[in-house]
Design goal:
- 2 copies of one chain form a homodimer.
- Chain A has about 300 residues and is of the alpha+beta class.
- The first copy, chain A, folds into 2 domains: about 10-125, D-amino Acid Aminotransferase, Chain A, domain 1, CATH 3.30.470; about 130-290, D-amino Acid Aminotransferase, subunit A, domain 2 (D-amino Acid Aminotransferase, Chain A, domain 2).
- Chain A has helices at about 30-35, 50-65, 75-90, 130-135, 165-175, 215-230, 240-245, 275-290, and strands spanning about 10-15, 15-20, 25, 35-45, 50, 95-105, 115-125, 140, 180, 195-200, 205-210, 235, 250-255, 255-265, 265-270, 295.
- In chain A, the strands form 2 sheets. In chain A, strands 8, 9, 10, 11, 12, 13, 14 and 15 form an 8-stranded mixed sheet that branches. Chain A has a 7-stranded antiparallel sheet with strand order 2-1-7-6-4-5-16.
- In chain A, a hairpin with a 3-residue loop joins strand 13 (about 250-255) and strand 14 (about 255-265).
- Chain A is globular and about 55 Å long.
- The interface between A and B is large, with 52 and 53 residues.
């Protein structure tokens, strides 16, 4: 039997499905040349989408706030996401959906006249930190040279590709011997890192930044699971001092789940091992990927 | 004779030249998915590149600051830009060069391991405001709802595609009946607009924001030409009040040159017509496109 050409991933562009390595967008799409775009990422785990409805709702809010008007309905987009996964045959996938302002087809520079475009792709599940790395935990630093783009410049609750600050911070993390970075805002409050939210377990409460961050679906899942476990949660503001003092620290992302942080700014967190609350939430997070309330199965073609 | 397939524009991608409508980049290029990219735009006017060396120098500084390492030399890039223009046969062109962080070819998420990519294209000259519009001048507003991304988040002197703030401001301008927008910083100082710097002629001096902006080549050309004309120039900080009070206002961009602003925040600038200093600089700007010191001719193929 011929190998599946979509085995490394499958993308949807302009009504057609492509193997991921051949999937291309116009170089003059303003989703690229102005980063005028919003996106979302949903996971498929063991053949089931996780919290797909929540991701689609956030995605729709995002393009509405950007005053975009894609030509496809949410239902059609949803069907395309399933089709990308089905064609790839991936059981564990990172599924990205994008609405771009698109192209200036009549030569106008007026973004109100552009045809907004929908793109999507499924690729193998992405790990910010691989499971074996998660067992020992990662080293996170708070950037000293870069702040997060403020919400009154670019709204972080509309998921976006404005990662210049996050990439610069990542290089600072490498320079300081760390694995990844979290950026402060102009007042020194912790915000978020490249593709993740951050949590501390501090003074008996699970705390995460309230504002200036993406309202992550994995962040929401952590909050939901913590409440079920009777762990007090709080959305608030805190600085690098709290990250350094906290008994436990972890990050949350659709790309890797609940990831223990065992070193902050070159200092051990607690006893330097992933903490108990972190381990409990992490265990519940993966169990939840098989619970009916949050999952929707993909019906794969028979091979 | 067959029509030139590159007549609408010619792009260079991965060693090949494409008609602009077929020019595509990988959807998973982090130049798109993280806007991890720098670019520059140079004009060709009447068959001559304008200040190409200055654009290439700025471009090179940009990717160095982003710690990118494209596989081509500046000389090779320069040759590709000429070839894009030659193939398009355009006498007046907007020529864009891009270095992107590129693709995670081995599945790593570590940007230090990505193969950085060079893209380029030439398309017909782009006008932020068409010449006939420039004769009457445009209506500019200072955004009230959006600030410019600050320099300690994303460095504006490294020309970038982080336009979320600029696009949001553009929609605010439309809502307020204006043509385009300029964004303030967090302290209310004027910065820049979508693709342009801003100048005022105020109290006998030509003033433009010193910091928090792209150091535009057209901005530099305006400063050079003003000095030659004996007009005092000053790089400093000023707010919306100065824009509203100024005797003359104009914007500068490779995409349109020196563009008179005759209305600011719904109020006429001066007598509501393009001013004398503006007209002088604008005239000199276009004359300079035929002066040897700043131009380099394209040798077009014989047809």
């Amino acid at each position: 039997m011929a190998e599946n050409p979509f085995a490394d991933g499958c993308a949807y562009i302009d009504g057609e499905y492509f193997p991921i390595a051949e999937a291309r967008i116009p170089i003059i799409d303003t989703g690229f040349t102005r980063s005028d775009v919003t996106y979302d990422v949903v996971a498929v785990w063991n053949g089931k989408f996780f919290r797909l409805k929540d991701h689609l709702n956030r995605f729709e809010r995002g393009w509405n706030r950007l005053r975009m008007n894609p030509e496809l309905s949410i239902k059609e987009m949803r069907e395309i996401l399933f089709e990308c996964v089905r064609r790839s045959a991936l059981r564990n996938a990172f599924v990205e959906m994008i609405v771009s302002r698109g192209i200036d087809e009549d030569g106008s520079r007026d973004p109100r006249r552009f045809r907004n475009r929908f793109y999507a792709y499924a690729i193998p599940y992405v790990w910010i930190a691989k499971p074996e790395k998660q067992e020992v935990g990662i080293h996170l630093v708070v950037a000293q040279k870069t702040i997060r783009i403020p919400a009154n410049a670019v709204d972080p609750t509309v998921k976006n590709f404005h990662w210049g600050d996050l990439v610069k911070g990542t290089y600072e993390a490498f320079d300081r011997g760390a694995y990844t970075v979290v950026l402060p805002d102009a007042d020194g409050n912790i915000t978020e890192g490249p593709g993740f939210n951050v949590f501390v377990y501090h003074q008996g409460r699970l705390r995460t930044p309230a504002t200036g961050v993406l309202e992550g679906i994995t962040r929401q899942t952590v909050l939901d699971l913590a409440e079920e476990q009777g762990i007090p949660v709080e959305l608030d503001r805190f600085g690098a001092d709290v990250l350094e003092e906290a008994k436990e620290v972890f990050i949350s992302s659709t790309a890797g789940g609940v990831i223990p942080v065992t070193t902050v700014n070159n200092k051990s967190v607690g006893d330097g091992k992933p903490g108990k609350i972190t381990a409990l939430i992490r265990k519940r997070y993966w169990e939840a990927h098989d619970e009916d309330r949050w999952t929707f199965p993909v019906i794969y073609p028979k091979i």
